[in-house]
Amino acid sequence: MYGGIETGGSKWECAVGTGPDDIRDTETIPTTTPDETIDRAITFFERAKPVDAIGIGSFGPVDRNPSSSSWGHITTTPKPGWANTDIGPEVQRRLSVPVAFDTDVNAAALGEQRWGAAQGLDTFCYITIGTGIGGGGMAGGNLLHGLLHPEFGHLRVPHDTAADPFAGTCPYHGDCWEGLASGTAIRSRWGRPAEELAGRDDVWELEAYYVALGLVCVISVLSPQRIIVGGGVGTAPRLLDRVQSEVVTLLNGYLDADLLGERIADYIVPPALGRRSGVLGAIALASTGVARP
Amino acid sequence: MYGGIETGGSKWECAVGTGPDDIRDTETIPTTTPDETIDRAITFFERAKPVDAIGIGSFGPVDRNPSSSSWGHITTTPKPGWANTDIGPEVQRRLSVPVAFDTDVNAAALGEQRWGAAQGLDTFCYITIGTGIGGGGMAGGNLLHGLLHPEFGHLRVPHDTAADPFAGTCPYHGDCWEGLASGTAIRSRWGRPAEELAGRDDVWELEAYYVALGLVCVISVLSPQRIIVGGGVGTAPRLLDRVQSEVVTLLNGYLDADLLGERIADYIVPPALGRRSGVLGAIALASTGVARP
Description:
five-stranded mixed sheet; 8 helices
């Protein structure tokens, strides 16, 4: 029996179970202050069934290097009050269980590989487009880690400021991918949140274009076998088919693969686990043996 | 004893040996037609010492999937006469030796990991900026492969067409990274080849800016532990220090690592094997046991 926590910028999802068909208990906790939010998660696990390990998939940037002194911390996040927050060690200490810690998107990628849209693949990406943009995945069967971890949201994409003078919302980079195409960017650009703009073709055509530009970078660097696009904005109606079409147009036949042409709908796909990729992936992470005792 | 071939767009480098300190024979062959070029390479290996296997690092795009019927072929290259060229199987058949086949940049990455600037690393990139731009490397200790293989040159970077109206030289994408920052782009933009523009600060400042934009994408997607920049343009005097500085500026402190700040000169580095990364990497590739009998 494993525990999973997906720490998001607006809420934490906690669950106990062994997989999508065996979830024994769940709780959704609003993200307030670090102390209060972590306390509520601890309380949930104290009341739930005992678990052998807990997996945490966290918003970031995080330190997920098991040999680092700040392992299990959120590091430089611009989210007020959350920079340099100890999460992994705190959960480990207070619940006395081994903890596995990674990014939310790597956890979601692992969940999709175990039970969802990336089964049988060893090189693929999971990208979430919501309040921000994040990306993770696997290369050659290993979750993507390197110097730090991927931060897809902060790659730079072409931005024709004559056609689109919007300056972007990223506090670090202005018009990076996240600054132009996240839910935060949509709200700032159009004056209303994405969910109130469902019928606006102009909104979703521009959004699809920027999303596709970022995906072309990901395809060029990693050559994933599949790209899973989740998140509240990423799974908005009629976005993904536009993104698929834009990616094919942008690649322009350079890469010789059916999946990058007529079969693009099998290449850029929604998460098979829906909104549960992250918390289920956190459970998968707890079960992989990488948990730190 | 192993053979290595680096097939480049302008020349092929062939070598026989076991590593940088033990090269028994070499030959440089101008790239003309496929038949003539392959013939000359075959003749070299027939005259040289017998080898246990040959590694080939090829310009591309290539098919390096060992289970594909077009394994060992160059596929959609825009280079005249070279699309759909059988290289790996031809060498294998005519010399009756096992052949390992990968991209030129993955071979160079492997060479740098075995003997050069990536020793001890498991997640890093090798990028060449010459006639074109290519990139390869490793993630988690495996060479980067996925649906196809990385094609760093074709990622899209910001391009302010008001400040820089140059349309780019990529026949597929116009102003993709390669279209803006390759040696071909420099020659087209400034009317002279890069080597005749050594003293021109404006040339190298713009070049460094575009190179840095591409590197920021690579860092965002892969989080490499180090980036090796080779190639005739990539190793031009006074380019790399400008690129290092631009990357730090563009990242703007978002990613918390000394190597992306004050230690950037240890992060973006030239190849330790100089111009021999590719052919030595091809020898390394031949010795890895992935050669197809």
